[in-house]
Write a sequence for this structure.
């Protein structure tokens, strides 16, 4: 009862300490800060009272030990006693009240990870401190989010393939059907880490069945169901994880595989190693960037001419007439160094990937030619978290029941 009266007194004191106001936003901000401070004080008193109540049942207390917890209301400090037990000196109340060893309570760690995946660390650090009043360094927050991500990532892939799903799928020359066509989209994106580490390549993969690709008239198609894999580790590690995820998704029967990616050599080396006999398609949107580079260099002040030239070349590419595109580029007025460089890059990109740009054949049998789904995966999995667009960490977090 005394504890309850104390809480009521503190609430009353807090309410009377609020200043008069003429600006709602300022008042709400002041009220939020005061209520946060009061809430933390009240929860600390309630928890400490419960600990003290439990410890009256024990005998032979030894040292008094302090424990700190990060809560949504701020940092909470509680004190518990150690006791002599047959198994040595233990803090009995920790087990009795399920006091965790880690000071990061799940609900706060979930908030930290949500902020970490949605914004750069300097900004997420600022918001975290503002919303929780927990004082910690940017490095501490970054390390905790990255550690949580690594733990979840390890748990996600710490499993073995079933024996009957680990064999490589057989290739087939027949036209692929919706029921047995599996897409593997792969991309790499340079990602900022912290100030000391600079940039590092994040590898992202997305795997989905063709039947899950929903076409919407007049709009970009949507993938109803897909699986992601991403890592900042080595390409070899990424290959292993893509292979593991692939075999978890693929059925035991022979299937057809389509790999979509940009011109990076490591992607196609992985495709030939992991998915021999697969259909390899150079991402049409990445290729279009090279076409646009030529157009912008040729017509730097005329956006309409840029669009018209690109549109013609894209139509030719979709008819597999890529050699005509090279000739069209070479016929431009090649006086400016940036235009010459853009044309050379386009020609090199096309010739190096000539076995992957038969778009006419791909479209004829209904295959996807663009890795828009991979690009959205970059935003969803990598950019939100590191380059700052799953949110994979938050998804994995919620799937494993943290914070519930």
């Amino acid at each position: 009862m005394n504890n309850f009266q104390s809480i009521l007194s503190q609430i009353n004191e807090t309410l009377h300490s609020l200043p008069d106001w003429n600006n709602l936003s300022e008042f709400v901000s002041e009220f939020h800060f005061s209520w946060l401070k009061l809430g933390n004080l009240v929860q600390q008193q309630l928890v400490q009272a419960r600990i003290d109540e439990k410890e009256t049942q024990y005998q032979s207390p030894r040292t008094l030990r302090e424990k700190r917890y990060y809560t949504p209301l701020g940092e909470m400090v509680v004190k518990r006693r150690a006791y002599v037990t047959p198994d040595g000196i233990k803090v009995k109340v920790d087990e009795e009240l399920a006091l965790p060893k880690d000071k990061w309570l799940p609900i706060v760690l979930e908030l930290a990870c949500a902020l970490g995946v949605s914004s750069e660390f300097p900004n997420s650090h600022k918001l975290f401190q503002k919303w929780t009043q927990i004082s910690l360094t940017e490095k501490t927050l970054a390390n905790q989010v990255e550690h949580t991500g690594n733990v979840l990532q390890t748990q996600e892939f710490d499993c073995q393939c079933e024996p009957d799903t680990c064999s490589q799928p057989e290739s087939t020359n027949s036209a692929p059907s919706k029921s047995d066509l599996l897409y593997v989209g792969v991309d790499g994106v340079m990602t900022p880490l912290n100030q000391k580490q600079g940039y590092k390549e994040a590898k992202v993969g997305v795997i989905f069945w063709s039947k899950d690709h929903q076409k919407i008239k007049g709009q970009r198609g949507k993938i109803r169901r897909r699986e992601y894999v991403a890592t900042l580790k080595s390409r070899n590690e990424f290959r292993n994880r893509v292979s593991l995820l692939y075999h978890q998704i693929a059925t035991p029967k022979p299937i057809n595989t389509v790999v979509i990616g940009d011109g990076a050599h490591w992607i196609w080396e992985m495709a030939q190693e992991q998915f021999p006999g697969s259909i390899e398609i150079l991402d049409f949107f990445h290729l279009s960037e090279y076409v646009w580079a030529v157009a912008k260099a040729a017509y730097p002040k005329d956006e309409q001419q840029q669009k018209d030239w690109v549109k013609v070349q894209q139509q030719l590419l979709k008819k597999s007439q890529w050699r005509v595109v090279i000739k069209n580029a070479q016929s431009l007025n090649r006086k400016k160094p940036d235009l010459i460089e853009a044309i050379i890059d386009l020609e090199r990109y096309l010739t190096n990937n000539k076995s992957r740009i038969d778009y006419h054949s791909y479209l004829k049998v209904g295959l996807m030619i663009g890795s828009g789904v991979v690009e959205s995966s970059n935003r969803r999995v990598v950019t939100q978290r590191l380059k700052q667009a799953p949110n994979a960490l938050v998804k994995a977090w919620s799937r494993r029941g943290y914070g519930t």
Observations:
- Residues 286-354 form one domain.
- The chain has 15 helices and ten strands.
- Residues 156-175, 385-404 have pLDDT under 50 and may be disordered.
